[in-house]
Amino acid sequence: MRTVGEPDLSRLLLEASRVLGAEVVAGLEERGFPDARPGHAALFMHIDRRWGTRLTDLARRARMSKQGMMLLVDDLENRGYVRRVPDAEDSRAKVVRLTARGRRFVAEARRAVAAVEARARRELGERRYEALRDSLDYLTGGVEELDGS
Amino acid sequence: MRTVGEPDLSRLLLEASRVLGAEVVAGLEERGFPDARPGHAALFMHIDRRWGTRLTDLARRARMSKQGMMLLVDDLENRGYVRRVPDAEDSRAKVVRLTARGRRFVAEARRAVAAVEARARRELGERRYEALRDSLDYLTGGVEELDGS
DNA sequence: GTCTCTGGTCAACGAGGTTGACGACACGAG
DNA sequence: CTCGTGTCGTCAACCTCGTTGACCAGAGAC
Question: Poorest-confidence range of B64-73, B81-90, B134-143?
Fold first, then answer.
């Protein structure tokens, strides 16, 4: 039994998430995007860089409500990173499409994420890094088997 | 290189945190405390159950600002789980002390946390569970060495 | 006695979501 | 063709969990 007073696992996960998120934001700031926030990842990790992606699809991929995703899209639209264009195939729908500046943003953002993850992978070691991702997938309800040990 | 479009590590951590937090809250609800929220853990994992703990100490232990902890204490005081009593040793200070109901709450809350962590430990396996905690400590800036996997 | 530091507090704000309701359009069944 | 049902985006209201800045009262060193 762990000593009472230690942080619970949930909080540890939250703190780790914030640390990595802040690192990504810092990386993005260095790369010339000082207004990036951790939450933007929910969009920029999932949007199609050429043609854009529908709001609903973005929400589903990021596993959040479409209303939540809308706030994000509103925000990024105000900042000039995306715009909403009508979907030619479905007149109810709109496609969230990157602007030229948005394409640069997403490219740098994905590089910043990759850099942070590469650092984690390097410092944790390949095995621990993969084990971490597997455990996380499992805890979030992932269906895959965990291999023995 | 991972496929573009996969969640980044930060988000995975966040989601895992929310899943576990929700489980703790659900466990607490079953145990007769339907108004528990994940954030309450920041207090109930760190408060001294007999004598109480100063706000500043709670904030430090939970690694958050004292203003943030104050909101939490206000909330739990409104719910009747804690009260602020003057500190006999320092007339500037107050001790956040559990009420009788608060003591029951904290006891059940720590059991609920322990149950969730025990489940994680069981399902992940001892090795993966320990590796997860170690990796998390490391990522959050923990100083300890990681043994060579 | 003054000086500085610390404990608690008030106020304002920000990020990152949630649920509910709803109008507009799509689309298959009849 | 039109009618029912489901989907897309949206508005509104709300919630959780914090943050920074300013400040006062009391503690403790000198």
Answer: B134-143
